[in-house]
Amino acid sequence: MKKSILTLIILSVFTSFGCQMSSGQIKKYDPKRKMSKTPVEWKKVLTPNAYHIMVESGTEPPYQNAYHENHEKGVYVSAATGEVLFSSEDKFDSGTGWPSFVRPVDPKKIEIVTDNSDGMTRDEVIERSTGLHLGHVFDDGPTNRGGMRYCMNSGALKFIKK
Prior knowledge:
Blueprint: H1 2-17, H2 39-45, H3 48-54, E1 74-78, E2 84-87, E3 91-92, E4 100-101, E5 110-115, E6 122-127, E7 133-138, E8 149-152, E9 157-161
């Protein structure tokens, strides 16, 4: 019984921090961050959820987002620009509750920057052309597919079915 409770606690902690900060937190906009538009301009074109994720570097709850269980063939494009960022061919079930990919379609369309928020150091994935937050990347992905896990927010993406 004690092992079961301990396992549940460890799983809960992993799930909560598996990709990003907890969903209830909002990071303030960092004026030093280079974005292609101002937050006011982005607010006019993004949905409230996409704005929270992409501009405020927020996250959505695990297992309660649009694409973690999506198994259809297609591509995932930026919710801000429509640029193709990830493919269903590279998507895998990481068990974290967020859509995870082994690689971007074109590495030149993303940028990896250091994220020191929430008392952690992580590698943040941003869309290169806009400077907007997409998620984080970790080196605990499938070893037979390169070992990387691009843990993305569904709200930063739109799925286009093939």
